[in-house]
Amino acid sequence: MSNFAILVDGLRVVRGGNEVVRGLTFSVPPGFVTGLIGPSGCGKTTLLRSIVGVQIIAAGSVSVTGSVGYSTQNPAVYADLTVRENLRYFAAVLEAPSSDVDRVLSDVDLVPQGDQLVGSLSGGQLARASLAVALLGSPQVLVLDEPTVELDPVLRRDLWQMFHSLAEEGRTVLVSSHVMDEAARCDRLLFMREGLLLADDTPAALRARTGSDDLEQAFLRLAVA
Questions:
Q1: Rounded to whole angstroms, how far apart are CA atoms 148 and 33?
Q2: pLDDT per residue as tens digits for the range 101-133
Q3: Is the dihedral of CA 133, 40, 49, 64 positive or negative?
Q4: Which domain does 222 fall in, by range?
């Protein structure tokens, strides 16, 4: 097995004349839940788009080992189809087994809404439907952009448990969030601000490095260092 699932080297992205990702270099190890943490607008989504290959980059390189599942911040599912119809369609596109549809519906707790039109779902249900698509085919690398936004605390807890179960199977989970309390749920953290990487380490190491038990305070100390 390679010692990295994602390798980013000197990555630069320019959008609208502004450099929004500024020479990032880091690697993401396989079999861990890695959190990409930072405030809204810091470049997290652009970085994730670069990793999955849908973003034009100005310089540098990105390498990913294995198949990739990607859940966007804005759910990419069809409003005029039911949840199950969406999953059947994407399973066919991905050449995933048909049995995956029931599996991922159960994984994201959407079985009762399986035959409901996506356009009638709540915000949290819509986010879960998008996540279900990313889980089709059991990808080796999961790239999830704000997957727990608008979810209730119980479902958030259950999804994080699922992320760690996937990591224990040897898969790689990269999760972005602007909510600092989610940082403590990760095995490793990438702290990002204004297109730069402030830190790449474990939560425990970051607490020790900054002398703070609170990860939000740790981030603030790194931001003004």
A1: 14
A2: 999 999 888 999 999 999 999 888 888 899 899
A3: negative
A4: 1-66+140-225
